[in-house]
Q: What sequence folds into this?
């Protein structure tokens, strides 16, 4: 364990080169895994490498990319957010109700959805940062509560949105030959990369995960930063929920079931440490795309859908093991 002194920023600054080295090696390993998957599925399927299929992969993986970007910040602080799938479903269902039943304009629905996601994140952040309850417990509880609220307001039914609503632009439009969800995902990734690597807030996030007490003694308001991180996570989940609702043309309380596990897998597969202290948006992008191409490739390989989830989980586990134990053993935490 590193020593904490009154100039906590000095401790943080001295540990930066080592974390950058870890990030670099982790990104290289997941990049090699990504290329390997592309080569394998390209050889065993006839249309995996087609432009149409890749546009489909990017369009469908956009919600995962958006939420995984925010989850990278959460996990870099040493936390976790299990409520993103439920938040996605609640905001998606409420958006459909607001458009179909209440007749609200789509900009109001969009802003309201983001604010609701921020509220869920603020509740998580408050109990984690100010009440000292572990993030796993808090977000597990909000996962159940928020999903329950979504079920309550929809009564388990899918809520359609008007076919002529401009809201569907988020999920169905194409701009310069690229799906709108993909463009939104790219923008979110770029913003996340800039925030984490080139802004003071990102340095605070990394410092909290590396040494929370040292960060606090160096003058960082660790509680406020933690709350903001969870608010960002909630807003990202809300945005993903509205994109899915816009693409499918309906909102449902069943959307996003198990989504939080895919998000966490993408972030960890991308070499962000579950123990906090360092994270990489580029790695998260590669991790999310690796999961997307594994699922797509298995489907194109005509593997039974009953085996797809098993195969996907097994491949992800082996990839993470390969990353942490073989290609990058320095990142494995000591057992002592």
A:
């Amino acid at each position: 364990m590193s020593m904490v002194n009154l100039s906590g920023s000095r401790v943080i600054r001295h540990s930066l080169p080592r974390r950058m080295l870890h990030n670099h090696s982790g990104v290289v390993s997941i990049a090699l895994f990504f290329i390997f998957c592309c080569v394998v599925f390209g050889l065993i399927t006839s249309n995996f490498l087609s432009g149409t299929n890749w546009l489909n992969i990017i369009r469908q993986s956009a919600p995962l990319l958006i939420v995984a970007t925010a989850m990278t910040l959460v996990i870099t602080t040493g936390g976790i957010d299990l409520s993103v799938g439920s938040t996605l479903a609640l905001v998606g269902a409420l958006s459909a109700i607001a458009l179909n039943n209440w007749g609200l304009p789509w900009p109001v629905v969009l802003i309201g959805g983001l604010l609701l996601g921020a509220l869920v994140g603020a509740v998580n952040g408050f109990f984690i940062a100010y009440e000292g309850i572990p993030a796993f417990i808090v977000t597990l509880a909000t996962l159940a509560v928020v999903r329950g609220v979504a079920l309550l307001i929809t009564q388990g039914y899918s809520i359609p949105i008007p076919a002529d609503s401009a809201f569907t632009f988020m999920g169905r439009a194409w701009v310069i030959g690229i799906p709108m969800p993909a463009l939104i995902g790219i923008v979110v990734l770029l913003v996340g990369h800039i925030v984490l690597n080139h802004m003071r807030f990102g340095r605070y996030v990394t410092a909290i995960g590396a040494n929370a007490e040292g960060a606090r003694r160096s003058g960082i308001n660790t509680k406020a930063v933690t709350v903001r991180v969870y608010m960002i996570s909630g807003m990202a989940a809300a945005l993903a929920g509205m994109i899915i609702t816009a693409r499918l043309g309906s909102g449902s309380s069943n959307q996003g079931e198990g989504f939080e596990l895919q998000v966490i897998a993408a972030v960890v597969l991308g070499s962000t440490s579950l123990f906090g202290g360092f994270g990489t948006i580029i790695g998260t992008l590669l991790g999310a795309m690796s999961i997307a191409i594994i699922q797509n490739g298995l489907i194109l390989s005509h593997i039974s859908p009953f085996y797809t989830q098993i195969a996907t989980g097994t491949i992800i586990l082996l990839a993470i093991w390969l990353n942490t134990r073989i290609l990058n053993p320095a990142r494995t935490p000591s057992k002592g």
Remarks:
- The chain has a mean pLDDT of 86.
